[in-house]
Design a protein that fits this description.
The complex is a heterotrimer of chains A (about 160), B (about 450) and C (about 550).
Chain A: H1 7-17, H2 27-38, H3 43-53, H4 57-66, E1 78-83, H5 86-90, H6 93-104, E2 117-122, E3 134-136, E4 139-141, H7 146-158
Parallel strand pairs in A: 1-2
Antiparallel strand pairs in A: 1-3, 3-4
Helix pairs in contact in A: 1-2, 2-3, 3-4
Chain B: H1 15-20, H2 25-30, H3 35-45, H4 57-62, E1 73-78, H5 88-94, H6 96-110, E2 114-119, H7 124-139, H8 147-151, E3 158-163, H9 173-180, E4 204-208, H10 209-221, H11 223-227, E5 230-231, E6 234-235, E7 237-244, E8 250-255, E9 258-259, H12 260-267, E10 277-281, E11 290-291, E12 299-300, H13 302-307, E13 316-321, H14 326-340, H15 346-363, H16 369-382, H17 390-404, H18 406-412, H19 435-439
Parallel strand pairs in B: 1-2, 1-4, 2-3, 7-13
Antiparallel strand pairs in B: 5-6, 7-8, 9-12, 10-11, 10-13
Chain C: E1 3-6, E2 9-12, H1 19-25, E3 49-52, E4 59-60, E5 71-73, H2 77-92, H3 108-115, E6 134-135, E7 140-142, H4 152-159, E8 167-169, E9 176-178, H5 192-196, E10 202-204, E11 217-222, E12 231-237, E13 240-246, H6 259-264, H7 267-270, E14 279-282, E15 285-288, H8 291-302, E16 310-314, H9 320-333, E17 339-341, H10 363-368, H11 380-388, E18 394-398, H12 402-405, H13 410-414, E19 418-423, E20 435-438, E21 447-450, E22 455-459, H14 501-511, H15 521-531, H16 540-543, E23 548-549
Parallel strand pairs in C: 1-5, 16-17, 16-18, 18-19, 19-20
Antiparallel strand pairs in C: 1-2, 3-4, 3-5, 6-7, 7-10, 8-9, 11-12, 12-13, 14-15, 14-20, 21-22, 22-23
The chains are: A alpha+beta (about 160), B alpha/beta (about 450), C alpha+beta (about 550).
Chain lengths: ~160, ~450, ~550
């Protein structure tokens, strides 16, 4: 599928570029914008980012596959990220992980059929003091219990 | 006890509140002195890096070349990805301007005209908060072109945020620089060190967010004041992040040298249901864990923890009670370092996965006592042989956990399990390629 | 010069060198996978860890700068433990499929497994599985499981081929190598990655599964694809060339050569179109005859033409020795000054890495050997015109295809009264030839080429012909050849009747009553060295393996690296 940045995003990329002495470092920001616009990082996105920044598609591909926050396939409208690292684990991280898995019947990096929810087991998110946690897209939900998780997921479902 | 980094002032994150509490005065004071004076004061204050290595901040600054044709850079490390570590986000949220002011002073001291604050991508919220604070500081003329009037100086600097995208390794300073340059976050071979050859080959200093946030107070109140707080060889306060099995997990700003038991029982409210402590990791998961029966008298500073055969790391204290499944904890830690190994150098790329696989096997009940030796051997084969410190970070928890909790691990593997294959020399390959595929 | 102490030996080094370079210059090998002298240092494989006194940890020899008085241990207990560790790590996820791997026998991983590892693994887990049989480009196949992520291929494309086509993807033990989807690694130098790949991760699509390396013999030669003259090894089994690889020569091609040179310059040696025996045209058809019959046929015809009706066209594909004798044959035996050769240039072939516009190996050498018209004689344009005007009635054409080069000349060539051709393969010109002599290819003879930058280089026979003596001609053996019996592969495979051009001409000259006393290419060269000023004082043996830089016109010193 063809991908071209919107004018607005092109402007935002140029603003990012200004922060650095060369264009390449803006690749990470450009990929975020592309993911926002396209939903995920397709091969066409990679090419467009490379062209816009004047770098090679291989360079962009290398970056995309290095960082876990860029997705090379579509994720749900609500991307649920459950931390199971030690501090969360000690306070019930895996119980929440299992709860979310069971609720939607999906595995790690899976997506529900209606494309609304996707799930990812993530590494430490810096919520150790407020564990356990779930991040929904960009927002953290912390100090969770199974009840609270149920409440959050239900409210997300109803906002659909 | 006075708090240096997270004082109890309401709405301190707002620039006006920060200014009315004496904010940006330290920067004004700094600009009346020479950059060498600033470095000298920070050196004398004894401020040590808060990112894990506890290296003298002033000494690090002094490595920056005085005369160079190249631009110089400051990177403020807010990647904060060490499991058990969650302090920098408090600074971004509660006291961002002190970090910004520290960045301005540090730029002046080392002669950097550009500073990048590298923040992990997951911290969307804190990136927005810090960006707002930076925008406000620009508007008030503390950063950028208006500095000339504000501070009556010829010096000018800019501060930008660079957002990471999910890679623990980018907290390693050379990897952070590669990531900032828009590359895969591979650590660089050292030497050359960043002060000679950093961002885009230019002299660069990388300091942790918490380190930088200390700087304005050192300039404001003097190095002697700072050097007298806490342990003399590692002075100041630390943001101790306490997590795991405690009643009041959270971040506590306390002087260095505070007793670990005080942190757990006095500040973090003790262990739920008064259970005994089995294990404590004192400085984030990569640091050697301490046994619950060896916590008495352990003080939380770089020197004391070295004596206790661990390390201060990022001050992330993870408490595990007597019911904790240590094998599961260690397997989870091993999974983390396997997942986060960048894959560049051999021992870490291959060894971290191996460690995880052995531990997962033990966890599944298929371990033997010889696997415990093997874990230590593999850890030793990684340690010291890698490009960056992730090697040690992956090796230490395994090696020291197995060594210090030997009885525990032995009990778990006590039922000697025979391995599913006879010949250990050859590998196990459960799924082989179908013949049709091979013929192609 | 400063001194470094490596394993208790005090050695000199050049300021700025790394430990591994200082060691190498002094003949001490420190094991290495990722380090390559012509690529940037990446320091990722860790097999070159050494102990340096006063340093707390082991350091990698490839990135640590040597300093005065530095004391290095490369065989201490700590170093050996680190080497064992790295080897064990590299092999845990490696498929250990040496029996079906092309690299086996010339594999660094395999060699080091003997030299630097315990030879035993404690790994009992399931291996990481990665993509296999990925065609990275037209000439290169990738096996992700064999790859040790040393990044040599990536750095080669970035730094030498100047065409960054490869990247690492994923991380940790899932790291593998990729091109951008839909794009190929198709730079003209892509196959160098196969050479520098220390394992069998990158293999040649052309050579895959053709032979075990130890079953082939290899002989040192020079690529004939252009006037760079990249140094090569020619690999032969059962008297058939299976591959051609690059050979290091800093003066000429460093460690590299182009894919065209590797793949397209030797196939004619094995081709169906080879001329196997001398041929004479009888009743309109070329028929095989013995050498003596062919010689007397040539002699009887040549005698009948006045010298101004004869022209001789030599070849930039032939050796200096061939062309020297050709010139002598034209001027002294046939007494004609109508002597020249065809220039072959292709501006599109040239680049600023190795490839030259002149797509022959010996243009400069042909001129130096005297392949030039006499004052009154015709040059190549004159010869062509005279053929058209039917003023030239007899043409002696050596190792080139006049008809293919000048298709418009075809009808005039057909009208020639005599066309004698030396060639290795049938071509457009042999269609009109009255006599055809089978000429040895560059892979079947001794001789010299003078490259475009004035470097005189030797070629050596790699494929046996009937006239060659494998032992006397110094041909290398393969493992299969070592017994020297009829069961050797020396005895297997087809042997061609071809002879080098100079040898054929010596025989004809003799039959024409002009004595030339040459039995070996070396003797021709000695004669050249005594009569050609630029070659004065050069001994054939002295040219050796890396060539001799001559002081000739347009002499540029080149750095291919």
């Amino acid at each position: 599928m063809e991908f071209k940045f919107t004018e607005e995003n092109l402007t935002r990329i140029e603003q990012e570029v200004k922060k650095y002495p060369e264009r390449k470092p803006a690749v990470m920001a450009a990929l975020y914008l592309a993911q926002e616009q396209n939903g995920y990082i397709s091969n066409e996105v990679i090419k467009e980012v490379a062209d816009v920044l004047g770098i090679t598609a291989e360079d962009v591909l290398g970056v995309v596959t290095f960082y876990t926050m860029y997705h090379q396939k579509p994720m749900g409208k609500f991307h649920l990220q459950v931390c199971t690292n030690v501090s969360c684990m000690l306070r019930g991280g895996y119980e929440i992980w299992d709860q979310v898995k069971d609720k939607f019947g999906i595995e790690n990096l899976g997506i529900t059929e209606d494309q609304n929810f996707s799930l990812e087991e993530v590494e430490c998110m810096g919520s150790c003091g407020t564990a356990p946690m779930i991040a929904v897209n960009e927002d953290y939900y912390e100090n969770l219990t199974n009840e609270k998780v149920e409440e959050i997921l239900e409210s997300l479902k109803s906002t659909n | 006890m006075e708090k240096i980094l997270l004082p109890d002032i309401e709405n301190l994150h707002l620039i006006d509140v920060y200014i009315s509490n004496g904010g940006y005065e330290a920067a004004k004071k700094a600009f009346t002195q020479t950059s060498d004076d600033i470095i000298d004061q920070v050196k004398k204050s004894g401020l040590r890096g808060r990112g894990g290595a506890a290296f003298s901040a002033g000494l690090k600054w002094s490595f920056m070349p005085k005369t160079t044709d190249k631009p110089k850079y400051l990177c403020v490390n807010g990647d904060e990805s060490e499991p058990g570590s969650f302090k920098d986000r408090q600074i971004f949220e509660i006291n961002p301007h002190q970090m910004i002011e520290g960045t301005i002073i540090t730029c002046y001291a080392i002669g950097a005209k550009t500073a990048y604050v590298y923040i992990r991508g997951e911290y969307h919220k804190w990136i927005r908060l810090l960006q707002k604070a930076i925008d406000d500081a620009y508007e008030k003329g503390f950063i950028g072109k208006k500095m000339k009037e504000t501070f009556n100086t010829d010096f000018q600097c800019d501060i930008y945020i660079h957002k990471g995208a999910g890679a623990y390794i980018c907290g390693e300073e050379s990897s952070l620089m590669n990531s900032l340059e828009g590359k895969r976050g591979y650590p660089r071979v050292k030497p050359p060190f960043p002060a000679q050859n950093g961002l885009w080959g230019c002299p660069t200093t990388i300091n942790n967010v918490e380190t930088i946030a200390n700087v304005p107070k050192i300039i404001e109140k003097g190095w002697e004041w700072f050097s007298k707080i806490g342990h003399p060889k590692h002075p100041g306060t630390l943001l101790f992040g306490v997590s795991g099995h405690v009643n009041k997990p959270g971040v506590y700003e306390l002087p260095t040298g505070t007793l670990l038991t005080d942190i757990i029982y006095k500040y973090a409210g003790g262990v739920p249901n008064d259970k005994k402590i089995l294990c404590v990791i004192p400085g984030g998961t990569s640091m050697p864990p301490l046994r619950g029966d060896k916590l008495e008298g352990v003080k939380m500073d770089a020197e004391s923890l070295k004596e206790a055969e661990s390390a201060i790391g990022t001050g992330g204290v993870i408490v595990m009670d007597e019911d904790t499944d240590l094998v599961k904890v260690l397997a989870r830690i091993a999974h983390f370092y396997h997942h986060e190994s960048c894959g560049q150098c051999t021992p870490c790329r291959e060894g971290t996965g191996w460690l995880e696989k052995i531990l997962k096997r033990i966890l599944a009940g298929n371990g033997s006592t010889s696997d415990l030796e093997l874990l230590i051997t593999v850890a030793n084969q990684i340690e010291g042989n890698t490009i960056c410190a992730l090697g040690e970070a992956a090796a230490w928890p395994v090696k020291y956990m197995v060594e210090r909790f030997r009885y525990y691990f032995e009990a778990r593997v006590n039922d000697e399990v025979s391995l599913p294959i006879a010949n250990k020399v050859h590998s196990m390959r459960e799924t082989s390629y179908p013949l049709a595929d091979v013929k192609k | 010069m400063p001194n470094i102490i490596i394993d208790a030996k005090t050695l000199e080094f050049k300021k700025g060198q790394t430990i591994i370079e200082a060691a190498q210059d002094n003949g001490i090998e420190i094991p290495h996978f990722c380090w390559h002298p012509k690529l940037s240092v990446s320091g990722n494989c860790r097999i070159c860890l050494v102990e340096v006194e006063q340093m707390p940890k082991l350091v990698i020899a490839c990135s640590t700068i040597a300093s005065e008085g530095m004391v290095v241990h490369t065989k201490s207990e700590k170093v050996i433990a680190a080497q064992n560790a790295v080897m064990e790590f590299l092999l845990i996820n490696h498929p250990l499929d040496c029996p079906i791997c092309d690299e086996a026998g010339e594999c660094k991983l395999q060699d080091y497994a003997y030299k630097y590892s315990l030879g035993e693994s404690r790994f009992v887990e399931e291996k990481v599985q990665k993509d296999k049989r990925i065609k990275l480009g037209p000439n290169v196949m990738f096996d992700g499981e064999r790859c040790i992520s040393c990044s040599r291929c990536i750095r080669f494309c970035d730094e030498i081929a100047k065409d960054p086509e490869l990247t690492f993807v994923q991380r940790g033990d899932h790291v593998t190598i990729r091109t951008y989807p839909g794009q190929e690694m198709d730079n003209p130098y892509s196959m160098n990655t196969i050479d520098i790949c220390p394992v069998g991760a990158l293999t040649s699509t052309d050579f895959r599964f053709k032979a075990r390396v130890w079953d082939m013999s290899s002989n040192k030669s020079v690529c004939v694809g252009c006037s760079r003259g990249c140094n090569t090894d020619i690999w032969v089994r059962n008297n058939e060339i299976l591959r051609q690889t690059t050979r290091y020569n800093e003066k000429v091609n460093s460690f590299w050569m182009c894919d065209h040179g590797r793949l397209e310059t030797f196939k004619h040696v094995n081709a169906e179109s080879r001329v196997h025996y001398p041929q004479i045209r009888k009743d309109g058809e070329l028929v095989e005859v013995g050498w003596d019959e062919a010689f007397s046929e040539a002699v009887s015809h040549l005698k009948t033409f006045p010298k101004d009706q004869i022209a001789v066209v030599g070849s930039p594909f032939a050796t200096c020795e061939d062309n020297f004798i050709t010139a002598k044959f034209a001027k002294s035996v046939l007494s004609t000054g109508n002597l020249d050769f065809i220039r072959h240039t292709n501006p599109e072939f040239a680049d600023d890495i190795l490839r030259n516009e002149d797509v022959t190996p010996n243009t400069k050498g042909a001129v130096l050997s005297g392949l030039v018209p006499s004052q009154a004689g015709l040059d190549i344009n004159g010869i062509i015109k005279a053929i058209k005007d039917q003023k030239i009635k007899a043409l002696y054409l050596i190792e080139d295809d006049l008809v293919q080069c000048f298709p418009e000349l075809e009808s005039s060539i057909a009208k020639l009264e005599l066309l004698i051709v030396h060639t290795s393969n049938y071509n457009s010109s042999t269609n009109y030839a009255d006599i055809v002599f089978p000429a040895s290819t560059y892979a079947e003879k001794h001789g010299t080429f003078l490259n475009g930058f004035g470097v005189l280089q030797r070629i050596r026979p790699a494929v046996a012909t009937a006239e060659l003596d494998r032992a006397l001609d110094g041909m290398n053996m393969s493992r299969l050849d070592k017994f020297g019996t009829k069961f050797d592969s020396w005895a297997a495979g087809k042997k061609n009747e071809a002879r080098p051009t100079w040898k054929i001409l010596v025989s004809i000259s003799k039959a024409l009553g002009y004595k030339m006393k040459y039995n070996m290419a070396e003797e021709v060269f000695s004669d050249m060295a005594s009569s050609i000023i630029e070659l004065k004082g050069i001994d054939y043996d002295e040219i050796s393996e890396s060539g001799v830089q001559l002081k000739v016109e347009d002499n540029k010193t080149v750095n291919a690296g």
